[in-house]
Amino acid sequence: MTTSKWILDASHSVVEFSVKHLMIAKVRGLFHTFDANIEADLNDLSTATIAVNIDLASVDTRNVDRDNHLKSADFFDVENSPSLNFVATSIKSAGSDEYSLVGNVTLHGVTKEETFKVTFEGASTDPWGNEKAGFSATGSLKRSDYGLTYNAALETGGVLIGDDIKINIEFELQKA
After folding, report:
1. In degrees rounded to 5, what are phi and psi of residue 12?
2. Residue pLDDT, tens place only, 50-102
3. Which residues of 57-68 are buried (b: 16+ CB within 10 A; e: fewer)?
4. CA distance 118 to 121
5. Which member of 23, 59, 138, 149 has the greatest number of CB atoms within 10 A?
6. How far apart, in Å, are the Cα atoms of 134 and each of 13, 82, 126, 167?
7. 10 phi and psi angles, rounded to 5 deg
């Protein structure tokens, strides 16, 4: 195979996150608006170029007040930093259909190298003759690394919001 451009099928893709709340439970959310520019040879993903852009104003935790707070200067500050960007710098095989994806995450004006575990879920042709490929990615970010430090101490000890944000991404791509 040769390197091809792959277009994100947003209706079959998701960018989700979870974070500890009250140190006892997890709050989950997702972003409705995101895009990816991917060029890859499915037989050699180590040569792929990947750039992902997430519109932070599209955050949805199923609670409007919390979503508005996340968009505020206490967290994402979408007025001044409207997106999270990821650009891959290295992709290495980590076993059968597993990869270690390293890249630069830019969030809230801070850029930091992060690593994600990626699984190639397979390739197929849809009923209309379009070539498709599926990928899953997991990882985590420390929100304090990006200057997202808003929190509240609990009377029982600990804090209201955890520092580790777990990321889960499912992308279905279509060959351009």
Report:
1. -120, 25
2. 999 999 999 999 999 999 999 999 999 999 999 999 999 999 999 989 999 99
3. bbbebeeeebbe
4. 9
5. 59
6. 9, 27, 12, 17
7. -60, -30
